[in-house]
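Lab manual, section 2.4: Encoding a predicted structure.

Procedure: take the sequence of the chain (297 residues), apply the prediction step described in section 2.3, and record the output as structure tokens. A sample record is shown.
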Amino acid sequence: MRKVDLGWTRIFVEAARCGSLSEAAARLNITQPAVSYQIRRAEAEFGTPLLRRLHRGVELTDAGRRLFDILAREVDQIDRLAEDLRRGPAKTMLRLFTDYAFSALWLIPRIERFRAAWPEFDLQVIATQRTDPAQLQAGDLAVIFGRGADLGRGAVPLLPEVVVPVRAAGFAAGLAQAPLIHLDSQQHPPPWFTWADYFAAFGMEREPRTDRGDLRFNTYSLVIEAALAGQGVALGWRGLIEPFVDRGLLIPAGPELAARDGGAGDRGYHMLPGGGDTEGLQRWLLAECAAHVMARR
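Recorded output:
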């Protein structure tokens, strides 16, 4: 038995769905005579009418309905398969856990470089105040602020804690007289340099103020936003504030204090690899942070 030529299949299905040869032609971006020709070919293949011509449009005959029920499913399945194949294999999802400050101030300005270098991965950034290393799974990676000894053997140093007082370009008060912007912590003592640590390290004393009080926030991003708005002087964490300093939006207002010099050892941002497919992300984080550290030497 001669095999049926199926070159008219999509045109027949579209015409049946539209109930109009002209509308089917428009949807398929071909001419109406071309649609009519292919329908005639299909009817010649089966030796029976498949569409009934009406005053306006067309409708399926009984034979056409039986054929449509078979072909419509097949055409839809082929379209879905083509879409899946053209899209390619699903990308591997990497999850990066870190705090709000690192994600907003360090990661976001640089993240496009990772996406360009590793297009085969999707990256989900999960910003949280506290990350439990025990909860990391394959494909997870964490960047956590703290001491390496407290974070475990697998902790890899990324950015050492180095702070410098910063103020907005138009803010004129001196360090000893300026209102200060503090980062609060639920831990005591706080796990980072405070203003008390800074003044003690340099033997400085702060002059009392009566005209304006200090500001306190529980999120470092808000500390920097307040400094940018000229609300006072903040302790800027090197590595996070460089874009604002480079553009002249924040001005250093005093000497730097580093963890290694202030008795805090290796305190700073550390990477905790979670295994799986995170090797590329690990290498990228290390390279970006190393470039920053080298640029400051």
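Check your result against the sample. The chain has a mean pLDDT of 88.
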